[in-house]
Amino acid sequence: MLLHGASMMYMPPRTRGGGISSASRRRPTGSERRRRVQMRDVEPAVDRDPVEHPQHDRDETEEVVEGVPGGPIDGSILRSFHNHIAAKIWLGEERAPLKLVNHGAKLQLWELDMERSRIYETVQRSGLAPLTSCSHRVASRPMLSAFCERWQPETTTFHLPFGEMTITLDDVASILHIPVTGSMISFSQPLRVDAANALLVELLGTTDVEASRETEQCRSPSVRLLWLREHFSTITDASSDDDIECATRAFLLHLVGCTLFADKSATSVAVVYLELFRDLSKVGSYAWGAACLAYLYRQLTTATRFEVRQLGGYLTLLQTWIYEHFPDMFSSPDLSYTESRPRALRWRPHVIPDTLQLVRERLDRLQISDVCWEPYVDHRAEHPFPEIAWYSGCIKCGQVVEPYHPERVLRQFGYIQTIPPRPFTPPRPDRSILLEQYWERWTDHVLTDQSRGRRCQYSGSGESVAEYMAWYDRISHRIVQPPQMRSGFTTDARSSLPSHAASTRDTVLRATTLSFMRHVISEGREQSHDHLWGALNEAYSILSGSDETSASHSTPSPDTRPFFSPPTFVYPPPALVDPQPPIVPPPPVTVAPPAPFADPSVPASDSTQSTTVYVRSKRTKKT
């Protein structure tokens, strides 16, 4: 029992009747007796009986959860938001972009050529062959980190300024072309190390010594991806049937460890998945897409905690989903793509140049018109819509159970969004039989026509009922970047930042300055002197914290500035006095363009009496 103002005190386990188990009954130590005496006077009156008021019997509809600054006002939906990364950001705390676990490059280290055609044929029948070619080698840390900040575990959806969106089973089927129907991937209990060693010996043909050495090096019931490649990548069609069968299992284990079930170890894969490849003829009967989605949901949920620094799961799925639904913001299409291939191959993955703070602001300004709600219309001829995408229930991957709520994202299916029912809490993983039975009868648990409602009047319009946004504004945290931390904010707002946000403030100042420079440089050399001078002045004002510029010629508010157009510069009076000698103040408009935008090949005008400085090889030369 945890007492207010006290540390955790040992409480022996009790029997069902409330008494102490005889196996765990022992005499308390002297230090425990002293602690009990000290805490007896300060112990609050609490109900000690766990039987009369079990936690799962509480009426959640009557419980009132207090809101947090910046929303949600009504905390009855996002109950754990106080511990969410978005809540920390709103209070001035900052987290660096997440470290991404992406194994796209490792897949190319073990390719199946003509000498391994027997292994390739088995992989083709498994339904996992598309994973060998559609994995992205590059993942954008700022973009994926910004979307993680908008993931809400209770609803398993991204909370954006205009409503909720999520990755659906339709997205998985279209992006990856792997099966989303079939048997649920379920394990009765976590695998112990000794059981993992026995499984390696039985299914991969290793010795007890090799298996024990490998799991001991991983310090878990796992094996390294490198170990799998070193021991089985050299097996060809000329090898024995047993060796080919073991190599096929090792390849499939390596494949799912690099893609669907990439964990945060970044180097290994859990041996428990090897059980799925015991009978190679049944590998294609599993719902790999549903398991992949459940696993990614859990990784996103874990990444919403402030102390987490990594993101696992199949990031190609997440990144492609962003490209598909926000094509004008982040994507770079591959013009050679054909609709017969997985949608993951439609895009050229790249790292966006913006910082996490700037991507966060772009998402804060998102509007309904910026979203492609139905991106797979042209893909339906080759890959029809899977009806199981309407399934409403739980999806599972081993011990991971996550809720799946298509009723919260009706706009992604072309329907008008209504106020959804309260999200349900998934059952415990040990109730696997009930979950599997529920999943096997998924046709009985799809949304009815009445639950789906009406289709949007125009395809891809993203319509919602009139009362939806008022409800959503109460229960969600729509804006992640706090106003005082936005780029281009005023000096007064900057000075009002808390002291613990100094590092974040410096990051935002640098990012804002670079954004001004990037817009100017991208327009090339053919620009007016006034425009160049204005950009330098904006950068100078931000870095120096100068409030010489009045509100009439400050940078436009982030809420009114267009997304993709360069910032509008309005210039202050020519005389700008710099209180800091090391920084050269911006020159008047009448002088030659300041370096670094000046062209050294063009001599300065004889009529100009000012000094122009050219920078070459870290040295200055005055002319």
Describe the structure.
The protein is globular. With 623 residues, the chain is mainly alpha-helical. The N and C termini lie far apart (78 Å).
Question: Concise description?
Answer:
The chain contains 19 helices and eleven strands.
Write down the secondary-structure element order.
HHEHHHEEEHHHEHHEHEHHEEHHHHHHEE
CA-based gyration radius = 29 Å
Mean pLDDT reading: 77
Approximately how much beta-strand content do the residues carry?
A: 5-15%
Distance between the ends: 78 Å
Helix residue percentage? 25-40%
Helix count?
A: 19
Structural class by helix and strand composition: mainly alpha
Please tally the β strands and state the result: 11
Question: Main attributes?
Answer:
623 residues; mainly alpha; two-stranded parallel sheet; 19 helices; 11 strands; 31% helix; globular; disordered N terminus
Strand-helix topology:
Elements: H1 30-39, H2 85-90, E1 99-100, H3 117-126, H4 131-134, H5 141-148, E2 151-152, E3 157-160, E4 163-165, H6 169-176, H7 193-204, H8 208-218, E5 222-224, H9 225-232, H10 241-258, E6 268-270, H11 288-303, E7 310-311, H12 315-325, H13 356-364, E8 393-397, E9 400-404, H14 432-440, H15 449-452, H16 468-475, H17 491-495, H18 502-522, H19 529-544, E10 613-616, E11 619-622
Parallel strand pairs: 1-7
Antiparallel strand pairs: 2-3, 3-4, 5-6, 8-9, 10-11
Helix pairs in contact: 3-10, 5-13, 6-11, 7-8, 9-10, 18-19
